[in-house]
């Protein structure tokens, strides 16, 4: 700890600062773990090369380095996993707190909205609306009723019966009397008779000639 931290105390880190440092550390560990992985691969290839050359002792030393780098790689993988788990827990907790705050805010808004539109007020408004509609309907009925002109008590049923009888009589027509034809004059009848006889004689002559 520096002298400044001992005298004045170290300021606590904010959540965002802590998360940023954890992420930076994870990235640094990933870079180192990749370097150890590459070194482990090279050490194993070196061991194979020594064996091919017949140098068994060199191969053993290369394999020891391979296992050392492999062990370091596994330890760094554990470091990364541990920090990532803590980072997830921090972010998850912060999200839970945000969701809780939002739910509480929504609850307060719903409560204030229910106060502005309570069930009792809505029912009272409905009753008032029904009363106003009833008054409007009664006013409409009064305005649509016929005006009194002083003849409402006059009985016109007898006059209606009389009109119906007249209408029935209008539908019945009296039978038409056929008109008599005028008697023809005697001289005119004699002339017509003579003409008929002439036509008959002419027809008989024509028939005899054909025979």
What's the gyration radius in Å? 64 Å
Bulk shape = elongated
Biggest sheet character? none
Give me the count of strands: 0
Give the DSSP E fraction (strand runs of 2 or more residues).
under 5%
Mean pLDDT: 77
| Secondary structure: helix percent | over 70%
Report on this structure.
By secondary structure, the chain is mostly helical. The protein has a domain at 13-116. 81% of the residues lie in helices and 0% in strands. The chain contains six helices and no strands. It has helices spanning 3-8, 15-53, 56-116, 119-144, 157-170, 186-210.
Please describe the topology of this protein.
Blueprint: H1 3-8, H2 15-53, H3 56-116, H4 119-144, H5 157-170, H6 186-210
Helix pairs in contact: 2-3
Keywords:
6 helices, mainly alpha
Short description:
The protein is mainly α. It is 81% helix and 0% strand. It contains six helices and no strands.
């Amino acid at each position: 700890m520096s002298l400044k931290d001992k005298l004045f105390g170290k300021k606590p880190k904010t959540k965002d600062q802590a998360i940023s440092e954890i992420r930076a550390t994870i990235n640094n560990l990933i870079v180192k773990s990749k370097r150890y992985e590459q070194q482990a691969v090279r050490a194993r290839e070196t061991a194979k090369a020594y064996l091919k050359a017949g140098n068994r002792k060199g191969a053993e030393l290369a394999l020891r380095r391979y296992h050392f780098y492999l062990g370091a790689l596994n330890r760094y993988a554990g470091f990364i996993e541990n920090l990532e788990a803590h980072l997830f827990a921090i972010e998850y907790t912060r999200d839970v707190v945000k969701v809780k705050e939002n739910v509480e805010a929504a609850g307060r808004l719903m409560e204030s909205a229910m106060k502005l539109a309570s069930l009792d007020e809505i029912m009272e408004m409905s009753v008032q609306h029904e009363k106003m509609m009833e008054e409007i309907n009664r006013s409409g009925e009064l305005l649509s009723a016929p005006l009194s002109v002083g003849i409402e008590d006059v009985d016109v049923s007898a006059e209606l019966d009389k009109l119906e009888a007249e209408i029935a009589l209008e539908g019945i027509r009296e039978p038409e009397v056929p008109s008599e034809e005028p008697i023809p004059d005697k001289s005119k009848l004699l002339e017509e008779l003579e003409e008929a006889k002439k036509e008959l004689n002419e027809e008989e002559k024509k028939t005899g000639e054909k025979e």
